[in-house]
């Protein structure tokens, strides 16, 4: 099924819409990211806000990354969250504009000064290739008289990086019908002329679970608050985070390769979690099903019974730093992901990137992806999507990657990511973090190559489906490190040594330093205290703030 996932998803959600529209979204008041998520959900429910409009006449089919930006024009106001989406619709532009204005009011926008603060702002940027201007003829070559009128393409988009950069995430080669330049070219022009004190940052927002405050709109699934977020610099070179994040690995299993049966009791899991947070962990990754070769089958019910009580106990911890810690659920099952998030997890970490353990990909992979995508979209949480070739316990397919391992990972993982974010029902692009899958379906040499050149995996090249995504690297204690440590040195004076997973912390440190040099946003580790030191020093060397 390789090469067909995206088309299969599109067939499931076939659209007869006549028009493709780009909409810009911004917010700098209240819960910015939740405001934007609410607006996006309302865009797909026009019948809730307009009379004589049928349901399903607007579909969001792609989203950009999310950005934090400095205010423009009126600078004495909070920073904005900005993004864009592509929609398919049968609505004429003035009806769509009416819908967007209703959404602004519903979400909480109130009258303010021009370019001033707002709970949400929605603008039609592009409508097919059409040029629309409802102003008087005498005003059409000016920037006057824009209030309560419709001008498409948006007349100021060519000067706004916060509009062009999100568009470039989705349609970089689209040619502006007035300026006759591609979006990529227009963005380059703006960047060359830019001189701002606060450059745009790419944002990964985290939803707060369990939900304690209700923000329920009629016939709209509840949108969680999103007060916490991670940021990454925008760069044409190596894309570096503003801070490298440490993910602590908590295996609530009796048979994990590294620490099976160590933290699989509730008291031990809490001790590890508290110690990890105090040592500087930014997020705790909890798994209840080992991915090691030969691991015993665990039912979804048993997996939930392993992880949900741990999550609930962390959320009830007496130390506020521990109880408020970000949590990810390491699972490939939608039932477990949903139960874990509703119990208090903030992120889904899936070693199969939503397609399940089947390899090569089959029809069951498509069904699995659709259900995982539906759950992730509904919950509005970040998802970590890892490259692998099926079940590590039964499939050791190390066959040659076409074009080399880096290109192979880009193509194979990129196909899944595209199917997950695009089309009706897709996950927002800003929620995706990618993982090259160190130690999964790769030779020792391939793992080393991925670590050595990891930045090229997400490089901003025109044909890279993974361009711009934040990266997680999980190399801690992996067996390929043991294989390297067993090798004699070049002249044979050192014979190498066999190691248990717990004896590979120094080897892990080398890979963590390499990951940071290559611009990883997150490193997944077992020993948080020692790896925090590695992250701190390596970040200083590679010029992080």
Automatic annotation (TrEMBL):
Enzymatic reactions: (7,8-dihydropterin-6-yl)methyl diphosphate + 4-aminobenzoate = 7,8-dihydropteroate + diphosphate; 6-hydroxymethyl-7,8-dihydropterin + ATP = (7,8-dihydropterin-6-yl)methyl diphosphate + AMP + H(+)
Organism superkingdom: Eukaryota
Domain Pterin-binding as annotated: residue spans: 244-536
Pfam family, any one: HPPK
Molecular functions per Gene Ontology: 2-amino-4-hydroxy-6-hydroxymethyldihydropteridine diphosphokinase activity; ATP binding; dihydropteroate synthase activity; kinase activity; metal ion binding
The UniProt record lists the keyword Magnesium: yes
Annotated keywords: ATP-binding, Folate biosynthesis, Kinase, Magnesium, Metal-binding, Multifunctional enzyme, Nucleotide-binding, Transferase
Cofactor list: Mg(2+)
Pathway participation: Cofactor biosynthesis; tetrahydrofolate biosynthesis; 7,8-dihydrofolate from 2-amino-4-hydroxy-6-hydroxymethyl-7,8-dihydropteridine diphosphate and 4-aminobenzoate: step 1/2; Cofactor biosynthesis; tetrahydrofolate biosynthesis; 2-amino-4-hydroxy-6-hydroxymethyl-7,8-dihydropteridine diphosphate from 7,8-dihydroneopterin triphosphate: step 4/4
Gene Ontology CC annotations of this record: mitochondrial envelope
A GO BP annotation: folic acid biosynthetic process
Classification via InterPro entries: DHP_synth-like, DHP_synth_dom, Dihydropteroate_synth-like_sf, Hppk, Hppk_sf, Pterin-binding_dom
Stored Gene3D superfamilies: 7,8-Dihydro-6-hydroxymethylpterin-pyrophosphokinase HPPK (3.30.70.560), Dihydropteroate synthase-like (3.20.20.20)
NCBIfam families named in the record: DHPS, folK
Family: In the C-terminal section; belongs to the DHPS family.
Protein name: Dihydropteroate synthase-like protein
Species of provenance: Suillus plorans
